[in-house]
Amino acid sequence: MTAELVRGQNHPLSQARLEIRVSAGTPIVAAATLGDEQGRIHGVEWVAHPGAPTLPGLEVSRQAAADHRLAVDLDAMPEAVHRVSVLLALPTGGEGPTCFGAVPTPFVAVTGLDGTEVASYTVAGLEAESAVVALELYRRQGAWKVRAIGQGYAGGLADLFTDQGLPQAHQLAGGINEAVAQGVARSIPAPPPRADGDRSRQAAAPALGPDQSGTAPQGATGPASPQPTSPYGNQTPGQPTPPPNSPYGTQGPGMPGQPAPQPSYQGGTGAGDPGQPSTPTSGGPIDYSHPRRQNAAPPPPPPTAPPAQPGQPAQPVAGDATGWSMDERLYNQVWGMFEDLARTTAAYRSAVDFADSRMEKELDQVLSDPRSRIGGQGDAAREAAQAKHAQLVNQARATLDRDLAQLTAESEVVEPALPPAYARWDNPVWHGYRVPMEIPMALRLGELHLPESAQLHIPMLIRLPLERGLWIDSGRGGSLDGSFTDSHDMRRLAMETAVAHAARLLAVYPAGEFTVHVIDPAGSGAQALAPLVQTGVLAAPPAVGAAGVADVLARLTQRVDLVQMALRAGVPDSLPPDFDTAQQLLIVNDFPHGFDDRAVNQLRYLADEGPAVGVHLMMVADREEAAGYGPLLDPLWRALMRLTPVPDDHLADPWVGHAWTYEPPLVPPGSQVLQQVLTQVAAARSKHR
Q1: Could you tell me which of 590, 597, 599 has the C-alpha nearest to residue 520?
Q2: Phi, psi dihedral angles at 507 (to 5 degrees)
Q3: pLDDT for 142-188, tens place per residue?
Q4: φ/ψ (deg, to 5) at 519
Q5: CA 24, CA 205: separation in Å to the nearest integer?
């Protein structure tokens, strides 16, 4: 069954010898790059393009064409190669289209040698881009997978190669464009839809091609023009010669090096009708028009990001950042938004401070002269100083509002495109949730905003695995709006926040790779813990009483000791066969009630040493209630990341000195999304066992 991929999605490859079929509806250039484990290209010799179409295990087309078939042999790839990126670009220097927004949406399919489709991807959402990384084949733990990328570049191949770390990016892009320009007359236009269901031969979007509009493309009217000699070898038109070291030997029709007949689009004889295949007349051109197709071009598909008007900012696009996967691009884009908001707010505050200090200085000068303190001269000086102050502040605010409008527009595009690990609980992406096969880059722990932009919330993303434990502070009852929450409600909200964090961690890890333990000495968190208990995702029922607390802490500290000893001895495989290798999370409720001195020392040990070996701590506690232990617990609080169950401006930003307001990721009232997600996690865990 074919996997129809969306941007960022991957699919395993069970075959080593593959074809990558591209259909674009207009002549394009196909290329491919080889990357190491970090995705870096080591030089121009790692790029297959029309001027150098053959690399070990890889062969690309030798000319611009509307259809391409790239040959790939994964078994023949050098050991240093871990990524194969498929690139598409529009030829430059001619009269053809200059951006993908003006052409039909490219369609890419990965097939076996028998034509069986393994995975396909429609590269949608392109506008001003003239080059795109369509997909990549990558090696992970000895197996190969394909991932849909769809990363476009308005600067063409030069920007694409630069982004992939190639020092000679501009020279190589120029050489490819020059070589392709010499062979533009050999460009193969789009063939008709085939009746055999070969989807790689059909445009993925309504094509504005000559078979629909009745207008022939440049160079396609009239008889076929003479084909020039290929600049890449001693090829004679009509007599293709397979390139050396081709993984597939002699090429069939449509493969690189074999020019296709130039069709005429005048008139119609029924060619392309599945019921009436046409037979070309001797010596005459083939007619590909459809007798029942309308002779008018359909409207183009609506763009996902309309081009910006002159003088207007570019329209934002989700995933418009650097990275090797969609998760990485979205992660970088979110933190880019965070940095932009921090920077523009800092600039605004600095401008206001400057305006205030300037007005104070001018007023001091006025008041320092007794002759100008009273009378019309003093009043005029004060009004002038205040007018300058208002002008500076208004200018700064206008700049801030402009930047906030752009960031808000970007947030409105990015937020719906986030994967479950980054998304809010009310995001529709959770309705299609499935237990993942890979660990994501990061996890959403809440939202951040500043007083100047209370409506613009930036996701707070933390890299996985967690480097620090979490502390859900249940001790502060005040909120930013001046209201107060009693201690009982604060404890309940803190525990619900902890459950939401634990559920998200369980949801983003593959089945069996994350385990949750709970310590609830007095059973006060039973109501909040119900989703975890009822769905059966906990490793064991919540530990209660002093004995339960001692047992859980003893087992987890012993686990940390065992892993540390194995790592220090250099024998990580020597752990017991029944050892649970999953990441561990311990939720501790109602601290310090039910904890003796030994238990307190064990908690400190887990907070300090646990994250390095996969044991994480989540404390739900009021620091003031633990004050009886004195300064003994200060290192514990400092080792944990403090979060609150209500909005609070406690997160300091040492970069620009802001105090960010944090809002927890609570589940919407009445929503059943938490139970639905945890039920799927529990079902996947039972199958995994």
Answers
A1: 590
A2: -75, -30
A3: 889 998 888 899 888 888 888 888 888 888 888 888 777 765 434 44
A4: -115, 120
A5: 9
